[in-house]
What does this fold into?
Amino acid sequence: MSESKESSTHNRMRSSSNRSAPSSSRSTGSGDGAGGDSSARSAAAPPIPRNAKGGVAVNPAEVHQAFQFFDVDNKGYITLQDLKKRLGVFYQNLSLREYKFLMNNQQELSESDLLGLLANNELTNYDPVAEAFKIYDPNETGYIDVDVFREILSNLGFGDITDQDIQTLIDTADVDGDGRVSLNDFRRMTTIKQGNAAAASTSSTMTTTSHATAGSPSSKGRKA
It folds into this structure.
């Protein structure tokens, strides 16, 4: 696909549009936790690995994980319907045209096709983990919204998510022990790639996929 087409779509879809959802977290200007002196919250974001073109370096292992997430029937390829089924949980307002763009106007995509689409992206000012975090923090409080997190996990097929399930996930990710999951906590979830943190890591890769091929669906957001 042409660089001009990618840039045009990226600019068109770009906006600060995350919708409201219930949250009791405090607001913050930095987007990585509110108040306090915790080094985990105040530490600068680690440098984003870059490819030869200055874009986001794509980890083949993460692409493999994302591909498995999309290929729910283990067919060895993904279709537009596969994308709708999975991406629709995160981005409910994507149009058919945009899904076709994500598929590179192909009927099917193999894992190597997906990796090829992403490898040479030129997303120079893009943090995939921070972008993925916005899905779980629609009010930009600096912390994951527990109700949104629960809804997403349920819609992904994890069944009924109990309060104990949520607490276990929070305890696993909450490095600074404040009872909430900040952006830096979320980064650790996507780095360790253990257990339920796999969903967070995959969402980060999916966001990279969307940006690299069709702009920023996160600006479309989930329905309020």
